[in-house]
Amino acid sequence: MSKATRFLWYVGPMIAWMVVIFVMSTEIGSAARTAGLLYKLLQRFFPDWLAQATPEQLFELHYWVRKGAHFTEYFILALLAYRAFRYGEAWRHWRALGFSGSFSILYAFTDEFHQVFISSRTPSLRDVGIDALGAMTGFVLLAALYAWQSVREALQTAPVQTVTRATD
User: Fold this and answer.
1) What is the rounded CA–CA span in Å between residue 163 and residue 122?
2) Does residue 143 come out as left (phi exceeding 0), alpha (psi in the -120 to 50 range) or beta?
């Protein structure tokens, strides 16, 4: 695999996901548009519930779906950033992990700043906090997986010791 192909293999998915986040921070991801999409989905899959739902319930559901999307976007970004920063085996695990978490949170701030320039969007520090929570959840998951893998490898490579019991 050429160096350019290898770079695109590791870094490309992260960049593509960053583009998705950027696009969703425009008019396309506005509350008005996502409300319409949510309504269509509810109409298709939960028509009985939709017929009985109050406007307050619909508003609350829409709110939690949007905040869940923030969390999920940055959870995925942290995982893809880790993969990109590892670039195969170029960086050690903890260094790549630290950079992926920091990078994802920094991107969350720039994403909210980007929304200053979109008339249908409102920047929010609460959203940055939710984004950071998603990124840190990815960080913790990766750290736990690495710790578990390290323990497993240590147990597999450790010499087997036999314990004998002295008897009188």
Assistant:
1) 66
2) alpha
The angle formed by the CA atoms of residues 25, 19 and 81, to the nearest 5 degrees, is 110
> How many CB atoms within 10 Å of residue 127?
21
The tens digit of pLDDT for each residue in 3-57 reads: 889 889 999 999 999 999 999 999 999 999 999 999 999 999 999 999 999 999 9
How much is the average pLDDT of 104-111?
97
Confidence at 138, pLDDT banded by 50, 70, 90: very high
State the pLDDT confidence band at 103, using cuts at 50, 70 and 90: very high
- Cβ within 8 Å of residue 17, ≥6 positions away: 73, 76, 77, 80
Burial 155-164 (b: 16+ CB within 10 A, else e): eeeeeeeeee
- Using a cut of 0.90, tell me whether the model's pTM lies above it: no
Q: How many CB atoms are closer than 10 A to CB 10? A: 17
Report CA torsion sign: 11, 99, 124, 77.
Answer: positive
Q: What is the DSSP letter of 117?
A: G
Phi-psi region of 111 (alpha: psi -120 to 50; beta: other; left: phi over 0): alpha
Residue 136, Ramachandran bin (φ over 0: left; ψ between -120 and 50: alpha; else beta):
alpha
User: Do 132 and 74 touch, CB atoms closer than 8 A?
Assistant: yes
